[in-house]
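Protein 1 of 2
SEQ + STRUCT:
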Amino acid sequence: MQKIKILHILYSGQGGLGTYFMNFVNSDQKKQFEHFVFFYGIEELDKELEAFCKEQQIPYRYQRKQSKIDLKALGKVLEFRKENQIQYLLLHTFSLSFLTILGLIKNWKVIAFDHTTLAYKTKIEKLFTLVNHLFAQKMIYFYKGHFEQNKRQFPFLRFGKNTHIIPKTVDIHFFKPAHKKLDHPHFTLGITARLIQGKRHDLIIEAIRTLKQKGQIVQLKIAGKGPKEGELKAMVTNYQLDEEIEFVGLLNRNQLLHFYQSLDAYIHASEGETICYSIMEAQACGLPILASDVEGISNYLQEGKEAVLFENTTEHIKKAILKMINDANLVEFGNFARNQAEVLFKKYNNPEMLKNLLI
């Protein structure tokens, strides 16, 4: 059977888009697709993404973003598509949304994915979301509530025949529990997320400071980079928490697995998500979850079975951490989390669902 050629168009730097792409390729166990990638953005091409493409022998191109309406980049995408005779374009970035309109004119298919919660979108990104929804052959959301967010912004949007829900999954064969849990002197939490506005690392740090003042020592590992790194590191030093909190930087896929496996529980404080890959990877590694009670998190975590949810305040995070430390069912939380990851993977294998949309 002839493979279906698809061109993934995604951001060039670190983040969830690259994770989604790698998980998609790894989940394509039946090799139904021939993959091509066009990386685009203000950042240099992420080394792990580049290495992954070389390892998987996936042809790729990289173009640095030059302007909001980047005609040069559009031309490069069209050139790459034409020389490889690719019929399907999987659009994971707002910046090249005009491809959806060109697809209608040229009679090739653009399938647009919305990876960003409305709270994080700029005005131009909201406009591009509208363009994608109106002109893409298929518009993919990761859960129904995500579409409803956009409908609140644009009330005339309809959940029509071109609109589909394909829940995210993670590679459960790679992300898995450790064979033997490490024995820590203190309860150890971890978070992996870009150090940016909207991710509430600051509240977690404040909660750990408050716990220390009351005699409860908790270790925290922070993975990731971002513009708020200097501010957060200064905060840790000012609070005299350098012994309790460690910044481990950017981690590649193998390092990330060991990171999760070194934790007692995973914590994630955020103002909003569109289903968080870090939480899903932690679930697959059999970790109990502490997370913000916000849309994109609370709609798929089951509190009391695998997670403790909290409001985004220092006091609520402190109480959630203490509740998890003292919970006798911690192992059961982790087992349930792993089971949920397995169920999602089997039910919503992304390549299978996408192929069903294409044929």
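Protein 2 of 2
SEQ + STRUCT:
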Amino acid sequence: MIFPTRIIQQLSHSFAYLFLLVGIVQAQVEKPRITDVRIGFANAYKLGCWTPVQVDIEGGSQALTGTVHITVPDGDGVPTTVVNLPNRPVGIEPGRTTTVPLFVRVGQSSAPLEARFISDDRKVRVSRTFFAGPEAGDGVITGGLPATNRLIVTLGPSLGLGDLLANEADDELSRTRLIQLESTADLPTQWQGYEGVDTLILSTSQADLYRPLLQNPARTEAIRRWVETGGKVVLFCGSQAEELLGSGGALADLVPGKFSEIVDIEQSQALETYSGSEKSITPDRRVNFQVPLLTDIRGRQEAIARRGPQSIPLVIRSYLGFGELTFVGLDFDRPPLRDWPGRIGFLRKSLDWGNGIHSQSGASDTVEVSNEDIITQLRNVLDQSFVGVTVVPFALVALLVVGYILLIGPGDYYLVNKILKRPEFTWISFPLMVAAVSAGAYWFANWQKGDQLRVNQVEVVDFDVSNNAVRGTTWTHFFTPQVNEFDLSFQPALLGQGDAPENQHLVAWLGQPGYSLGGMQSSSGQTSLFDRGYKFSPELSAMKNVPVQLWSTKTITSRWNAKAPTPLDPALSRTDEQLLGGTIANESDQTLEDCVLLYGQWAWNLGQIPAGLTIDLSEAKQPRMVKTLLTSATAGDTTITNTASDGTVPFRLAQEDVTRITKTMMFFHALSGGRYTGMLDRYQSFLDMSHFLEQPDLAILLAKSSNPGSQWFDDDKPLGSDEDRHWVYYRFLLPVGPNEQNDSL
């Protein structure tokens, strides 16, 4: 017995030493740390929009490979998670800091952000929560800006844009925020990072600031793609144009023409006239500016200087894809332009900053001005438009609650004491009443709201006929009668061509701007019953396990683009009266309904264009003003006869009509939308194509289709029912040639 006892003692000591050694080794293993998170542009970002985020991870004592996960709430307060691409695993080295770029979509102004690193063995190696505050700091990120703010991001030497905002109303929801970036490294590498940016301004007098873009062309490509999908860039480039705009230059893709050479201009009159200022740039009005000379210019030349017989465009209002591109061939950060009193007027006009809600003109009726975004109105109308789903009025709910209280209180007392005269029966009557009322309430709610999933969807598909580019935007509002989780994916569709080939699309939830109930800016925020939340695919093209509560709705959106042949064959040219002539052929197999052709300030009502038919504008009705036709009595889903003196329908009568709201969003500026609606158009402003109506070489054909359009899927099943409602609109950018008669002379 002594021998086994001694062995057991030795084994016990060995195990003790082993456990001690393991404990020492584990104590010496240092975990990685998440040291910082930077979100947006210099910590500024809009709620409800994709925005860049960078996570700094300091390596521990072990080399690890894995993925970074970031979780933030959506507009309903449900946690959402994004993760880096699986083909780009994150490697963490001991003693080194790794920066991981991602894109997030924050839905609440005071929302925390949780960052995690999960290694390849699926273990959470480090996790840290950053809380929202007024300023970024250790463990703190800034809260998001309202979706209705105007976010202006500038890169390069300061242009003094703050002077333009001196008299701006100090309203939290409609303010303009100026963000100055210090380096091109602060620019996103993918286009969706700019979704919350209203305007990107590039000032280029310091060329060395932009040279790193040549080593990382992904940042320039992201800017170009963002503009093509509806973004807006203003490029100030004078003396450094040869390096930056010439062949192979860092910004050559953002020029509305081809760089030729640098020339000198000595007269300032063109600048002073454009700004509307009576103050001269110099006392003798003689200057010496180096400006770029462009050829093959695309767009409208707004300011032109003379150099002998030569015309030098100084301000060009152009376009790139579906977005806006403004080129200013001057360096406004240098004297004497920097000190010129007329600088503010010049910058305001070139930046097109005179389009606020209080500055738009042309409305025929007076509306109450609010800071609500027009997308909120569209959401509200879609919410009230489900087939077979009735919204119970609050007054009826209150009445039923009062009746319930009277039934289980005085009613029960009267029943058992006055009629039955057996008070002890209340132990039976009371629960029976509660059960009966509960069953009745469930039956009534089910009768009002139905037991089927319902989908209301609005889609706008834009075709650029010149280069076969297609852009689509879809807003989908769906109702579910039961608690459910959805694995949502999206398949874009083209007019008469089925599914869009080789498309690229993003999906997301759509928030509600503002402080109202359910708004992203609400101080209390939404409280969700779902703690687990849902997850975006790494490519942001799908959402997995999206939870929706009983008898509730969810609003989701998709933005997509593709290359596809255009189903129209236009042959349009300008006439002597600056109108349009020519033909448009519908080569698709679908009928285009409610067609309106827009050019400049004029619009033609073309009615239907059947499949395979060619229409001649010489046979069309006389044109009307764009605003008059787009807001006329017959411009919506229903006819409204109560029009204003100029033939337009006041928005207070049109705000329950999906087609009228969507048309207003599609041409908000052209309709003087701020004054017409009393609302803002900031959250989905990329949809507005009013700027193309200022281009002499482009026209827009607006049409409606009875085709259901693009399709959402829940796992592999179509999301929807037989009683869904779809509103599908198409816009075609059509090239317009010069006057043929003038060319032949």
